[in-house]
Design brief:
Number of domains: 2
CATH topology of the largest domain: Glycerol uptake facilitator protein
Structural class: mainly alpha
Number of strands: 0
Distance between the termini: 46 Å
Helix content: over 70%
Radius of gyration: 33 Å
CATH class of the largest domain: Mainly Alpha
Shape: elongated
CATH architecture of the largest domain: Up-down Bundle
Number of helices: 31
CATH superfamily of the largest domain: Glycerol uptake facilitator protein
Largest sheet: none
Length: 677
């Protein structure tokens, strides 16, 4: 409709043009033009024109009532802004398609009218909501739609919509997988069945009285409200039990859909409650705004991501937080233990650096090199994990979840902010000593191995790679910082994988299935099956996440080369080992600039590894737990103040009176069976 963009007439000209006579057209063009013109002027002027030109106003009112007469609006109540697919990806696909190529709708529905009259429903909704209440009241009276809610056709549509929603809610809620999420309701009267029965009573009464509005004191209304609350409680219990039973995308979307439909039923009931004459006008306006609001959120991808991922991100970070507890040192003994664990990780990485360099010297395709690099990294990281060693940059993704969990579960007072700042110092010192353990061992181990190979084979295997290895540690000559950020992103992704695998393991009861497996019990015995089950429950998520972290690091460079993009990864521990290999290959004859810039870059790489992975993990953790970012700002200020007063506590395990409270904060964040999402 090109007229939307070309028409420059003001509202008075349009109203005179179309409504100086009794216009019986069914075209939406006049309404579109009036709405567009009104948004550009002072609404009080528009109202004044309607009051001064009663004949035109009556004709305009007749037109408005005509085009809406007999057009059902149940779709706007039962479909708009409600998940229609059981599953995230089918829903995403549908919304993207509808956004790019809007579906062909029945032209005899309010759904179609809103879509065509309001090009930008959100803007129109905002415009009307910003109008003074008295002006809106006046508009509804002038257009004779102030008693819209009492029209029999409207009441019929509202009742029909309520029934549709109740039937759908009942069907979804009785799904066995949904019922299993709230086992406490199995032996009680199902609130969804009771809700449906009560709505059936209302339907029967409507057939007898032909009236679908009642007062807030009506016993049926009160009973429905009670059942609605019970249904909402069911959904919340199901979400809370997700930490205990795990959850799938399908069940998550089913619960979200049930909650949306329950809220919609509640919205419908709120507009049919009439205690006095004033409620008639208010409810008519409320219905108008509700329909516009529901439609304004249609095909909203951002909201879909927000709704569908909040709970899953909570579960992921919940499982990750449990792992994060093991990465926070509380005293000198744990501090030194972390150093030893990180040193073990540094030893393995030092060997991996030499192996990667040797793999790079083997003739072959980019694919073969990608396979070799991925195998090298993946097996090394899995080995580090299984041997209980530590890779420093794996920590941020874990500890971030723990810290966010503390924030969401502690009472946020000034005292707790100080205690949390002290906990942050514990986390930071853990990161620091892990960095040192990795770097201090990776360098000499890589140096020792390449020296040993030189002695055995009488050849400096690092000489050909020396220039490139050192150049890669120059942030000016290479994209070392950017590549460090890529590695940080993959660290974050590996944390997500770990949490997701843990959630799926709980949801599908994999450890229990292993322990009860008939074949394992027959061939190995119940004790061996139980041991395998325990080992799986404890280690599988870590094995999978470390394996994929290694794959990501290994294939990035070759994939970037294949695509013609400068993609690669830089990791602090590998950078330390490569620094050693570069120096040895150059026979330690490098310029002062090269030496110091390489050394500094090693730690810069570590900083960006940490900053990216920790930042992304904290963002996900904050979002999943609905942490108030205003409070987070205050906490950050307290952390800075604490650092200025006690800088050494961020690097060394200095005893403090706050140690006990910090330990208690961490221990209290162990995942519970029922948490509020």
């Amino acid at each position: 409709m090109n007229f939307r963009f070309r028409n420059k007439e003001d509202f008075s000209t349009i109203l005179v043009k179309y409504f100086s006579f009794r216009n019986e057209t069914a075209s939406l063009e006049p309404l579109i033009l009036v709405l567009r013109a009104v948004r550009k002027t002072d609404f009080s002027v528009f109202l004044q024109f309607l009051k001064e030109n009663r004949e035109i106003t009556d004709h305009f009112s007749f037109y408005i009532n005509t085009i809406f007469k007999g057009k059902p609006f149940n779709l706007s109540l039962t479909e708009a802004n409600i998940l229609s697919e059981i599953g995230f990806y089918p829903e995403l696909k549908k919304r993207m398609l509808d956004k790019l190529l809007p579906a062909v709708e029945n032209e005899e529905t309010v759904w179609f009218m809103v879509d065509n009259v309001s090009v930008r429903p959100q803007k129109d909704l905002e415009f009307f909501r910003n109008l003074p209440e008295e002006q809106l009241d006046e508009l509804f009276r002038l257009l004779k739609i102030d008693r819209f809610i009492l029209r029999k056709s409207v009441e019929k549509e509202l009742l029909f919509s309520t029934n549709i929603l109740a039937w759908r809610v009942l069907g979804n809620a009785l799904n066995v997988e949904v019922v299993n999420m709230a086992p406490s309701y199995r032996n009680l009267d199902n609130p969804f069945v009771a809700l449906q029965n009560e709505i059936d009573i209302l339907t029967k009464e409507y057939r007898e009285t032909n009236r679908f509005h009642f007062t807030s004191k009506d016993p049926h209304y009160k009973q429905i409200k009670i059942y609605l609350e019970q249904c909402f409680d069911f959904v919340e219990v199901a979400f809370k039990n997700a930490g205990k039973y795990g959850i799938s995308s399908k069940i998550n979307n089913s619960l979200l859909q049930i909650r949306q439909q329950l809220r919609r039923i509640n919205d419908i009931l709120s507009v049919v409650i009439i205690d006095d004459e004033r409620d008639v006008l208010n409810n008519s306006k409320k219905l108008f705004f509700n329909i516009l609001e529901y439609k304004s959120h249609k095909n909203n991808l951002r909201e879909l991501f927000a709704d569908s991922t909040t709970l899953l991100s909570h579960l992921i970070t919940n499982h990750t937080a449990e792992t994060g507890l093991h990465y926070i040192t509380a005293n000198k003994k744990e501090y030194m233990k972390m150093f030893l664990r990180a040193s073990g990780g540094g030893v393995i990485v030092g060997a991996l650096c030499v192996l990667k360099m040797l793999y790079g010297s083997i003739p072959g395709s980019d694919f073969s090199h990608a396979f070799l690099y991925a195998f090298n990294y993946a097996m090394g990281f899995v080995m580090i994990y299984l041997m209980k060693y530590t890779l420093a940059t794996k920590q941020p993704a874990m500890t971030a979840a723990t810290m966010a969990k503390v924030l969401s579960e502690e009472k946020n007072t000034r005292k707790n902010y100080v205690e949390f700042a002290h906990l942050v110092s514990k986390v930071f010192q853990s990161q620091f000593i892990a960095f040192m353990g990795n770097v201090l061992l990776a360098f000499p181990v890589a140096l020792a191995i390449i020296y040993g190979l030189d002695v055995v084979f009488q050849q400096d295997l690092a000489s050909d790679k020396s220039a490139k290895l050192l150049n890669d540690l120059d942030p000016v000559q290479s994209k070392a910082i950017f590549h460090a950020c890529i590695a940080g992103f993959f660290l974050f992704i590996s944390g997500i994988i770990s949490g997701n695998v843990s959630n799926n393991s709980v949801f599908y009861r994999i450890p229990t299935r292993v322990a009860k497996n008939p074949s394992l019990n027959y061939w190995l015995g119940a004790k061996a099956a139980k041991s395998i089950s325990d080992y799986f429950a404890k280690n599988w998520a870590g094995i999978v996440s470390n394996f994929w972290f290694g794959v990501f690091l290994g294939v990035t460079g070759p994939v970037g080369l294949f695509l013609g993009l400068d993609l690669d990864i830089r990791h602090i521990t590998f950078a330390s080992g490569n620094f050693a290999l570069g120096l040895y290959g150059a026979d330690f004859s490098v310029s002062t600039y090269t030496f110091w810039i390489s050394l500094i870059t090693v730690f810069l790489i570590g900083f960006f590894n940490f900053a990216v992975s920790f930042g992304l993990s904290m963002t996900l953790a904050f979002r999943s737990r609905s942490v108030n970012f205003g409070e987070v700002k205050e906490i950050y200020k307290e952390i800075v103040r604490y650092f200025m007063k006690n800088p050494l506590r961020f690097f060394l395990p200095i005893r403090s009176q706050l140690d006990a409270s910090a330990k208690e904060m961490v221990e209290n964040t162990v995942a519970t069976e029922s948490e509020d999402h």
